[in-house]
Amino acid sequence: MLKIGQNWVLLLLFLLGLQLAGLPLLGADFEARAAAAADDRREPIRIALSLALSGKYAPMGRSQRRAFRLWERDINFRGGLLGRPVTLTIEDDRSRPTRARKLYRRFIEKEVDLLLAPFASETTLAILPLTERHHYPLLASGAAADEIWEQGYGYVFGIFTPAGKFTFSLLEMLVAYQLDNLAVFYSQEPFSRNAARGTLRWARWLGLEVVRKQEFDRQRSDFTPLVSSARRAGAEVVIMAGHLGEAVALRRAMAEVGWQPRVYYATQGPGHDAFVERLGAAADGVFGTEQWQYLGGVAPSRASGRFAREYQQQYDKSPDYFAFAAYAAGDILAAAVAETGSLARRQLRDTLASLDIQSIIGRFRVDGRGRQSRNFSLVTQRQDGRLEVVWPESLQTAEPRL
Fold it and tell me: Tell me: the pLDDT tens digits for 379-395?
């Protein structure tokens, strides 16, 4: 008993000495540290990105903004990230890579916690030197050009099927239906060039004949000469490797000359509401590519169906696959943060490089360069105002109309 009493006296004398020396008592220090930790937990996690809310990519950028806002609402309803709320900053890059670069430089100067990628491959390529230098991992939910992953970057991860494989499912369908003669047109921009290059490579491998191929100036306004050249060459299939505006312009040119190939396919546009708004009845019959999506009452998972219903309820329109990809990017980022247990960017990068999960657009898994390696594309066709899956055969909601 005497020994225990002596120990207590020594402890009291030690604490008194700390107080006289102006040093904090152990209990007070612990309380201060706990209060500081609590404040950190309450501080929002700041995530930023730019999107094309005006300019040529605006229809897709606005779709993604709606989806990202829905994700922000949902993640905060579930408790945020690491127990902290999430605030999402979205700025308009006006579909201009140079403006996007300025915006991302500003985000980095403000030391935001995390970044998400902008829409369009050319815009994503413009910001990568900045984000790589500062070790920000990026989920590319609006870019698929192969050259993004051919520059040696280590912090960018794809969600879409790479552009070089974009048309492979279509070409498989053409072989099955014995349609051999292709005309391929593509614009002077990374995604379009990569999609065309992949189309030509896979067409040769599958034994299809390319009777006409041509790159066109992005400022082109008259697409009639392209249509006329495809017609003269005897093309059964016309492939537009481009974006929404170019897909619409080529379809209008076909109507002007009174010619329709058996298959008109565009890499981007046919699945978007704006395509129908601009073309009306002329949108019917056009083929396109979609990622995993809620189509014809079919969804790859309950989460996909739930997202489609909530998006419809919130915005009074169906989500396109750009919206699906944006929401998926948020969920994949949240999964990586949860698995990492922190916002440490290098560790997050390593987690994303090895992550293998199901998202609302299917499986997310990247190869050693960060390219998407597990997702795949669907071929769709507008039929009587509906977007139907026509390939692969096992997932058809309707037969293709040729």
Answer: 999 999 888 999 988 88
CA angle in degrees (0–180, nearest 5) for 375-356-305: 60
CA dist., res. 273 & res. 288, Å (int): 13
The conformational region for residue 137 under phi > 0 = left, psi -120 to 50 = alpha, else beta, is beta
The per-residue pLDDT for range 248-302, each reduced to its tens digit, is 999 999 999 999 999 999 998 898 889 999 999 999 999 998 876 555 455 567 8
How many residues can be counted in the chain?
402
pLDDT in tens, 59-108: 999 999 999 999 999 999 999 999 999 999 999 999 999 999 999 999 99
Q: How far is CA 127 from the centre of its chain?
A: 15
Supply 59's token pair: 């229809």
Dump strand ranges (E) for 208-361: 209-216, 237-241, 263-266, 287-290, 357-359
Name residues whose C-beta falls within 8 Å of residue 304's C-beta, 6 or more positions apart in sequence. Answer: 292, 293, 294, 324, 360, 361
CA angle 169, 171, 176 (to 5 degrees): 95
What's the rounded Cα separation, in Å, for the pair 225 and 125?
Answer: 31
Report the 10 Å Cβ neighbour count for 365: 14
- Burial class of residue 213 in the structure, from the number of CB atoms within 10 Å of its CB (0-12 exposed, 13-18 middle, 19+ buried): middle
**CA–CA distance, 173 with 157 (Å, rounded to integer):** 29
> Which tokens go with 218?
């992005």
Burial 124-146 (b: 16+ CB within 10 A, else e): bbbbbebbbeeebbbbbbbbbbb
Question: Positive or negative CA dihedral for 309, 314, 317, 323?
Answer: negative
Q: With a threshold of 0.85, does the pTM exceed it? A: no
Total Cβ atoms within 10 A of residue 82 = 16
